[in-house]
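Amino acids appear as letters; backbone shape is given numerically. Here is one record.
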Amino acid sequence: MILDKNLSIKKLTILTFIIMYSLFFIMTIINLYSYSRYEFSKNDKLIKNFNTTLSQQLYEKFNNLSEVSKYPLIIPEIDKLHSTLTSDEKYDIADYNYLNYLCEMMLIQSKSINGAFIYNLSGEGVFSSRNTTNSIIKNASSEEWFSNALNDSNSITFLPNMKSEDIFQYTSSNNNSLIGVARQIINLKTQEITGILLLTLPIDELLDILTKDLPYDNQILSLYTPNGDLIISNNYEINFTQYFKDFNFISNSPVIKTITNIDPYVTTSNTIPLTNWILLSAIPNTSVYTINSLYIFSFVTNIVFCSILFLVLYNLFIQRIFNPINYLIDNMDKSNIESNLSSELLYEREDEIGILVKSYNEMKSRIHDLININYKNKIEQKDLELKQLQNQINPHFIYNTLESIHMMAELNDDEETSIMAEYFGSIIRYSMNRKVNTVKLREELNIIDNYIYLQKIRFDQLFIIENLITEDVMECEIIKMIIQPLIENAIYHGLSECSSNGKIIIQGQKVCNQLLLTISDNGIGIDTDTLKDLNDYINDKNNKFKGIALRNINRRLKLNYGEKYGLEIFSVLGKGTSMVLTLPYIVK
């Protein structure tokens, strides 16, 4: 979005507030949505993991029953079992005791089993059971479960919803439902079925597994046959049989589906291996997809707080900023400038607007005085400028004169004078070019080389120059002619009293996005008090010195770059002096 450049600050502030509030509101909504999606996803994983774990527990229970039912089939005297079951005669006491012994051995192997039965093909059986008053079992040949077990293509059949009356002639009044596991007793030599083995499990054993440590309130856990017949549930009031067509039982992995035909429930279903029974978990939507009430409260509180905060800030801006600014603008109206110069704008507060009004009043007063003074000085100033222009020497005259000296020296084979004239001309031309205020450090150093050459001729090898500036800062932009005065100062004030072995070092490096240029000499140095006075002088804090070069350099740096840049001098008496220039690191 491109804003109108002429848009008022008031409208811009209102627009900014609206954008900020909109962004805050959108980000808060997104945050709430992301949090809810995260919580819902976490709940989905928890539900699936719970169903998987519960299915595994049920599978282990049924698998254990399956393993126990194999016991009579793996004993060494298996042939005796087949001959006993296929005998046409009734069981004698030895056969009865033998079959009863096998039943008792199966009971011992699992505490969950409450009854073990062995039947021949005629339906006559022998059994052993726990905690039951029943002692006479039916002939099972007429029972549906018996014929189903005999005709099942699988050797083992899991029988849901069995009753004691399906097995015993007489049952107690508190007869409970049973889970049956029927296994065909097969003669491996002839591949013929010789009998049926039946194990029964109290249905309460499964109910304990289904109701233990439920993670959600009002969670319904049910076990169904593949046809949708309910086997067991912890809540018989709600039956999901009619919705079985909506579920997918192809995979053993949990499948989550929401049922909305009745009160919304999140259902998870998966098939238990071995039995092919269906474990169905149903949880009310309100128990699964809810967001923490503390988070909702925090969300609403943040919205309300930010709304109030924006209103308070806007009102504050109106009262303390916009209204005073409009008052000031009205007074500064162009049509009233001349008539308002002698009047004073009234503002009672001492805040930033008050400072602005005070400065505005002072400015009007000064302008009023300057108008009177300016008119009187205008003619005199023009006369002075005319005389000054007439007295100025044309810079081209200097260049042409130096060029003439250079050519005359060459004609007279005076190479040294020719070079001096050439170098001096380049320095004059460089320094008097008023169109350029900043140059690259490399250009400044080229002129410094010419200047040093001329000084070495004068001082006859009094000093040497060592340039330690690294190549990575050579392209930095600096103010023109700020290094030459420092080298001149080092020669005249630092090394002029030395007889020989003078040395000037020029250093330059980048430090924290700043360019530090250091000009050091090993001259006479400066004592501590004089050094302090000198640093104060170049910062306009005293007038104890006559030279203006160092002060001018410091002023130029601060005017161009800001107060944190400038010149600072360090020195030790008898050891030497270092002058450090701090500039911004600028490369274009």
